[in-house]
Write a structure and sequence with these properties.
Layout lengths: L1 H4 L2 H29 L6 H29 L8 E4 H12 L4 E7 L1 E4 L1 H19 L4 E7 L1 E5 L6 H4 L7 H12 L3 E5 L2 E5 L3
Parallel strand pairs: 2-4
Antiparallel strand pairs: 1-3, 4-5, 5-7, 6-7
Helix pairs in contact: 2-3, 3-7, 4-5, 5-7
Amino acid sequence: MAAADSSFPRLVSLAAHDLRTPLATIHGFAQTLIRMGDLGEPKQRYMEMIDTASRQLAELLDELGTAARIEDGRFDPSLQAIDTMELARGAAEELGAERVLVEGDGAEVHVDPESTQRGVSALAQAALRHGGLDQVRLRVDGATLAISPVTPSSAPVVLGEELRDLGAAVAVRVVRALGGSVDLDGDTLTVRLPE
């Protein structure tokens, strides 16, 4: 048991957990000051930037904690039934409908909705960011979601093989930990979720 408690994934998980307290303080005070208003420019804009950055940092800590739990064999997803079209639309909404074109027909899958939607969004964002693209297509076909195009240079990053994008790397691990798969066929990334 002592060996597991001193493992690197456990250390990462502990660090992610411990960083939440100071981050929550920063976020809380930023929110309070924004709600008070009347800060004037540029103070109001700076507070909004701090608020946005603290939310982004919290999301990164969530990703890091999830990856550590998967690597340490402690990932305990909250499995629920959800339609893949709902997952796709939620992911597109996070990135902007003009950047992610959703089409197709969904089906019910049994996944952890929050981590799966975050993962689909991260995969689409990685395809956009690392492929230098303005838009990707997210095609839903039952329990399968297909993201295209994925450029040859971005493929290793989107597949989580080249660790340059935390969101994509964690997304691939989450899908596989749930019993799904992530594969590349030509310029299409195929995410199959468990039904």
